[in-house]
Design brief:
The chain has 586 residues and is α/β, with parallel strands linked by helices. It has 3 domains: 2-186, no CATH class; 189-412, no CATH class; 427-583, no CATH class. The chain has 25 helices and 10 strands. The chain has helices at residues 6-9, 30-42, 68-90, 99-107, 121-132, 145-162, 166-177, 189-200, 208-221, 227-248, 255-266, 276-285, 291-314, 318-325, 332-341, 346-365, 373-382, 393-410, 419-426, 437-448, 461-467, 518-524, 529-535, 543-546, 562-579; strands at residues 2-5, 16-18, 48-58, 61-66, 108-109, 114-115, 117-118, 180-186, 468-472, 513-517. Strands 1-8-3-4-2-7 form a 6-stranded mixed β-sheet, with helices on both faces. The radius of gyration is 31 Å and the shape is flat.
């Protein structure tokens, strides 16, 4: 292991570097880049960039096995620095650095016109045009998170460099070029695997996925197989990891969450599984033979789980989309992973989505105050193909769905989420700021919409989140004096407290809450009711505003009182019980 500089690492223009597809794509965010710059600002004469592990691909070409994030950042740094200093040269400022040398060492071999550094295959065309060639316009799209981070890093460097003196920029360039690094170059995958595994399983701040990756590599190396078999197994692992890393940059869910959900799906303990790293290591320890075979099966299944997550995140299925809107897929993902693992049909996956949208709504409605995983756990553990193949997996999954529905209806263990409990929470006197108030009122909007109109004419949930807020029809603080004078029923009735909007706890109930645009809400505030009523439904797509007139006593001076609130709440609760009727999961 040799201590050298970045300039020496690139070996007098001759070396080239590539990040293999089974390594992580670029993942540094703005915090990492700003810390990189801050370290340069604080450095006086010395900078340390850490350790790099390389595998020889062919003469003068090295695979970057460890250190790809730092090395990629250095290339982006040099590209942005060169572009900024070129601009200053055109402005006839004095620049002492040889900008052609920066290109030739770190970006592009001037003689051959080839890249000196390549990132992962799926991102490299973008990296070539965005960073290596610094094109102002190109056709490569930012269609992965890693490409977005590359562009973000470029933007941060460019912004800081434009406000930094040439003298300081040249100092930073020297600090990076002369930064101390250590390099370890290995000549085959087996040795690379051993070094990577030992190096990355000794307390570094890794994701759980990276920890498992290093552990699996080490186990394959220690398996006692022939060198050829080890290389074959490592190659298999690399291909599956390549699939995983492609998916990581295409999904929103955190990679370790996917790993956790997959572990719950396959561990045999479901939601009661041990912490994933500890559990997997314990599982491997208990296998006396064919550990490599188990590892291959696990990593292949994990790759499929990442693909499942992308399917769920991108699905246009209305029930999966609704489940996404609830923003709580932790119960559902292990079931979806199993459903796709065992090739459930789209029709049964749709039914599974209906079930979990219903369960998740009920769970969030009561604030998630009761533990639900133990109720689902037995179903998750037992959800697997029949050994005798007399039943299809669709039959088994449908039976599981039926059993869960039956338990919600009839089992005391599910009392917190049955229809009686749902009705109680919908009738709550303080429904305002319930986690799913917007979602419920959106579903109510669709429920009362004109069934003749196709869905594009209805308000989407995305529009709702962006533009809608919750309106108190009877305001929390009515304007100027007595509420009745402003068109609202009495807020407090001494002789019959339940008749008052406030004293009877009607103010924050579901019947007094309505979706409204933020702009509209702010314009009407706590104005008199006749002003509000005039504005409801005017140039507005929301039927729940238009229907407010149905709940008030017709007359010259409309009044919004406890009776109107009660009537509207009764209608919304009735609609909700129908929308989330378990018999609809068919």
């Amino acid at each position: 292991m040799e201590s050298i500089t970045i300039e020496k690492l690139f070996d007098s223009k001759n070396r080239k570097f590539e990040i293999p597809s089974y390594q992580r794509a670029y993942s540094w965010d703005d915090k990492n880049i700003k810390q990189f710059i801050e370290d340069l600002e604080n450095a006086e004469t010395h900078y340390y960039l850490g350790h790099f592990l390389f595998e020889v691909k062919e003469d003068n070409i090295l695979y970057v096995i460890d250190g790809q994030q730092r090395l990629t950042t250095c290339i982006i740094f040099f590209s942005c620095l060169k572009k900024e200093l070129e601009k200053r040269v055109k402005e006839r400022q004095v620049v002492s650095l040889d900008l052609e040398d920066i290109t030739d060492y770190y970006l592009k071999d001037i003689r051959k016109g080839t890249q000196k550094f390549k990132t992962v295959r799926d991102d490299n065309n973008f990296f070539l045009e965005e960073i290596i060639e610094s094109k102002k316009e190109h056709s490569q799209e930012v269609d992965t998170a890693s490409k977005g981070r590359i562009r973000e890093a470029k933007g941060i460097f460019s912004g800081v460099f434009s406000e930094t003196t040439t003298e300081v920029l040249e100092k930073w360039c020297q600090l990076i070029e002369e930064a101390t690094v250590t390099e370890f170059i290995v000549k085959d995958k087996v040795q690379a695997t051993q070094v990577f595994a030992f190096q990355n399983d000794r307390g570094k701040d890794l994701t759980k996925l990276e920890t498992i990756k290093a552990f699996f590599m080490l186990q394959i190396y220690l398996s006692g197989s022939s060198k050829e078999k080890i290389e074959e197994n490592i190659s298999y692992l690399e291909e599956e990891l390549s699939k995983i890393y492609k998916q990581i940059v295409r999904i929103n869910l955190d990679e370790d969450d996917v790993l956790n959900y997959y572990w719950r799906a396959v561990s045999g303990k479901g939601f009661n599984s041990e912490e994933v790293v500890k559990g997997i290591k314990g599982k491997i320890k208990g296998i006396s033979e064919n550990k490599a075979e188990w590892i291959m099966g696990f990593i292949s299944g994990l790759a499929q789980a990442f693909q499942t997550v992308e399917k769920i995140e991108r699905s246009t299925n209305s029930h999966i989309r609704d489940l996404r809107h609830l923003n709580n897929l932790s119960f559902a993902y292990p079931f979806f992973i199993k459903a796709y693992k065992f090739n459930a049909s789209p029709k049964v996956v749709d039914r599974l989505a209906k079930l979990f949208e219903n369960i998740t709504f009920r769970y969030l409605l009561r604030g998630g105050r009761a533990e639900i995983e133990s109720r689902l756990n037995g179903y998750l553990i037992n959800l697997k193909p029949a050994k005798d193949y007399e039943k299809t997996f669709d039959d088994i999954l449908n039976s599981t769905i039926d059993a869960i529905i039956n338990d919600i209806k009839h089992s005391g263990w599910w009392w917190y989420w049955n229809d009686h409990s749902m009705r109680e929470h919908l009738n709550s006197s303080y429904f305002y700021q319930n986690r799913i108030d917007n979602y419920l009122l959106w579903k109510y909007e669709l429920y009362i919409s004109d069934k003749e109109h196709p869905e594009p004419h209805k308000v989407s949930f995305e529009d709702l989140i962006q533009n809608e807020s919750i309106e108190h029809i009877a305001p929390r603080t009515p304007t100027n004096g007595d509420p009745v004078a402003n068109g609202y029923g009495p807020y407090k009735v001494e002789e019959a407290l339940e008749e008052g909007i406030v004293s009877g706890n009607w103010l924050n109930s579901l019947g007094n809450l309505m979706l409204i645009s933020r702009k509209h809400n702010s314009s009407i505030g706590n104005k008199p009711f006749d002003h509000k009523l005039e504005s409801y439904g005017r140039d507005n797509l929301l039927n729940q505003q238009r229907e407010i007139r149905e709940f008030i006593v017709k007359g010259e001076n409309p009044v919004w009182d406890k009776k109107a609130i009660e009537a509207r709440k009764k209608k919304i609760v009735s609609a909700a019980l129908d929308i989330w009727n378990l018999n609809r999961i068919n």
